[in-house]
Design a protein that fits this description.
The chain is an all-alpha fold. Helix content is 76%, strand content 1%. The chain is built from 21 helices and 2 strands. The chain has helices at residues 12-23, 46-72, 84-89, 95-131, 137-162, 165-185, 189-205, 207-238, 240-243, 258-295, 302-306, 310-318, 323-334, 336-365, 372-403, 407-421, 431-464, 473-512, 516-521, 536-549, 551-554; strands at residues 244-246, 254-256. The protein has a two-stranded antiparallel sheet. Strand 1 (244-246) and strand 2 (254-256) form a beta hairpin.
């Protein structure tokens, strides 16, 4: 039981809750499957960590050179530029336009700052409200499934009303598929909702640290993308004859040379790899934090404590205030090689995706029909391999964050765990991901509205009062909306990825140590600075939902 039996004292509601709590007892024999073991604290897969750092330092060097070139570049003194004369001739007529453009730079910067800040505040507020709805997850997920199908039906009706028959047929087909999907998975909603409720409780225990780390990773990703473009520009113009082959003196029709193609492939691989590493670093860190919350011992049994994952040992020694920091250090130092290895596999497949799509588009422009089916099949295979690799990484990195395994061992261990539990079908459930995607879509729509408001306040109003400007306001409205939508995706993704990673970790922890729910219901076990524990009602709902939907896997 989650709580010891107590005399029936107090209000009737408390007595009823106590009776419900006593029913929650998973009571499974956990010796029937293999458990993870804490690994020696050392750098795993260090070769791939060194390789990643080497390419990162190389790109940083070229990025720094790109910054220097951008600052010191003067087209009037560039004698090697064949277009210098043309630039000088056209300099005078464009002075007025340049002054007008520069006059709007502070306005656009103010607009961008206000939009970004507001989206961050709104996204954080939505996440904060969502994390407090642990008792309404089932209702929210049911409403999400219904809303998506109703939306498709409404869109179909609107398309029919305006005569867009093709779009109407597309929406009707989408609604039918959505209805079939909702009917097929409706009985599994209680399990997904229970997993989500437990994960939200775990995230809420360390919300400030995880949200702050999430935005740090987002800034690192955005900053690295800027550095990548600077490095690409520096490498492209350092030896333009080696990179580009141009057909005329105006350099208006240029193509990559063979050497330039290989350099571009290397740069794309670097970009994909680094992006995947930052994403998986955050995922592994969340796994470590949630593992701390799940496995933190409430007893004084030293033997039992030594069998807990690395995260819970750090929590016992340092308290919960440093849990996020400790998990980040383990992921970014000791497990960096494992994360780099798994991320490199996905990055290579993403590069192959880019190459196949580029080849198909080039063949289409040239009117080459031969081999089109083969290229289509190749792209489909590569896409599926990339999704499979990301799927494997998602579960493997949870074990990396919990126990500090190397990448291959972690993937093997978690696969053997799910196979021993008979959960190979259960882990394919995407209900939580669909629900979070729907919430994120709503946030992105709201972000678009926020961007339109600030764009009107700072930019459009000024243009309307500028007699020299005749810009089409409708274009600006659409532009501001889609810019806000894109910023909403970028800034809210990390927040909802926090919850998604927490759900994945909860599934792994529940598969390996389901009886730990009893410990979670007891609270902090008297430890100082203990993180908030799981509400007994939520634990009860999780066990009952699993037993109802998967009676063979969880027991009656």
């Amino acid at each position: 039981p989650l709580l010891p039996e107590q005399p029936n004292e107090g209000p009737a509601e408390d007595q009823q809750q106590a009776a419900e709590v006593i029913q929650v007892n998973v009571g499974l024999d956990e010796t029937a499957w293999e458990h993870g073991e804490v690994q020696e604290v050392k750098c795993q897969n260090s070769f791939f960590a060194a390789l990643f750092l080497l390419q990162a330092i190389t790109l940083l060097v070229f990025g720094g050179l790109g910054v220097k070139t951008l600052i010191t570049y003067d087209p009037e003194s560039d004698h090697n530029n064949n277009n210098t004369a043309n630039l000088e001739v056209n300099a005078a007529p464009t002075t007025t336009t340049e002054d007008e453009i520069y006059s709007y730079v502070p306005v656009f910067l103010l607009f961008f700052l206000a939009t970004t800040t507001t989206i961050v505040l709104v996204s954080s507020a939505v996440l904060s409200v969502l994390l407090r709805q642990t008792g309404a997850t089932k209702t929210m997920m049911e409403f999400g499934l219904i809303l998506s199908n109703v939306t498709m039906v409404v869109l179909a009706i609107c398309c029919l009303a305006v005569g867009a028959m093709s779009m109407a047929v597309f929406c009707i087909i989408g609604a039918l598929i959505g209805i079939c999907y909702a009917t097929a998975v409706w009985h599994r909603i209680p399990v997904a909702a229970a997993n989500l409720a437990v994960a939200m409780t775990a995230v809420n225990a360390h919300r400030r640290g995880l949200v702050g780390l999430g935005y740090l990773v987002t800034l690192l990703t955005a900053g690295w993308t800027c550095i990548w473009f600077l490095a690409f520009g520096e490498i492209s113009f350092m030896d333009s004859d080696f990179m580009w082959s141009c057909n005329n003196d105006q350099d208006q029709d240029c193509q990559l040379t063979n050497g330039g193609t290989w350099i571009l492939m290397g740069l794309l691989l670097s970009l994909y790899w680094t992006t995947q590493v930052l994403k998986n670093l955050f995922h592994t860190t969340v796994a470590g934090v949630v593992g701390t919350w799940w496995f933190s011992p409430s007893t004084n049994d030293e033997d039992e404590e030594m069998n807990q994952p690395l995260a819970s040992q750090d929590a016992r020694e340092n308290g919960t205030t440093s849990v996020v920091y400790d998990a980040w250090i383990r992921s970014s130092i000791y497990s960096l090689g494992s994360i780099c290895l798994g991320s490199l596999i996905v990055a290579l497949l993403q590069l192959l995706q880019t190459l196949t799509r580029s080849a198909r588009q080039r063949r289409g422009r040239n009117g080459v029909a031969a081999g089109g089916l083969l290229m289509c099949m190749l792209q489909c295979i590569v896409d599926q391999l990339e999704r499979l690799a990301e799927y494997i990484n998602k579960w493997a990195f949870v074990y990396v964050g919990l126990y500090g395994y190397d990448f291959w061992t972690a993937g093997s261990k978690v696969y053997n765990l799910f196979r021993a539990r008979g959960w190979t079908v259960i882990i394919n459930d995407h209900l939580v991901a669909r629900f979070l995607s729907l919430v994120q879509l709503l946030v992105c729509m709201l972000s678009g509205g926020i961007s339109v408001f600030w764009g009107w306040l700072f930019v459009i109003r000024r243009m309307d009062h500028d007699e020299d400007q005749n810009a089409d306001d409708s274009t600006l409205w659409y532009g501001f909306f889609w810019l806000g939508f894109a910023l909403g995706i970028l800034l809210s993704d990390v927040l909802f990825r926090t919850v998604s990673s927490a759900v994945d970790t909860i599934v792994v922890c529940f598969a390996e140590a389901p009886n730990q729910l009893s410990e979670l219901g007891r609270g902090g076990g008297g430890r100082r600075n203990a993180a908030p524990r799981l509400k007994p009602a939520v634990a009860n709902e999780m066990v009952l939902a699993w037993r109802k939907v998967y009676p063979n896997e969880i027991g009656n």
